[in-house]
Amino acid sequence: MTLTEAMVATLVWGLTAVGVLQIWVASGQALADAQTRQQALERIDADLLRAGAQLLRLRSGPSTVSSDCQTVAAALAERLEAQPLMALPGLNRTLRLEGEELWLEYSFREGSSQVERRRLLSPEAAGLCAEIGRAHV
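RE: above sequence
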C-alpha cells in the first residue's frame, strides 16, 4: 500500500467515524427530547386528574347544585388557580373562563418538543347547575 492509498483510507475511515458520531449524537438528542416530552405529558395528565378531582369536590361540597353555572365555573377556576402546576421548564397552563365553561389550556415548548392540549370543564355536564330556566334541545 502506498502512502497515498494509506492517506485516502485514513480519510475515508475518519469521515465515516465523524458520520457515525453525528448520528449517535442526534439519536441521543432525540431520546432526550422524547423523555422531556413524556414528562410534560405526564404532568399535564396529572394536572387534569387533579382538576377532575376538584370538580368532584365541588359536587360533594355544601350547596352542590347552583342555578348559576357561571358562579360554579368561577369557583372551580379559583380552586385550580390556587393549585400550582408541577414545575417543568417550558410547561404552561392557562385557565380561560368563557361564560359557564372553563377551558384548561396547556402548552409545552422546549427544543424540538412541542405539546398543546385543551380540556373543557363544564359544571353543567358534571351536574353542578340546576336546570331551572334552561332549554335543552
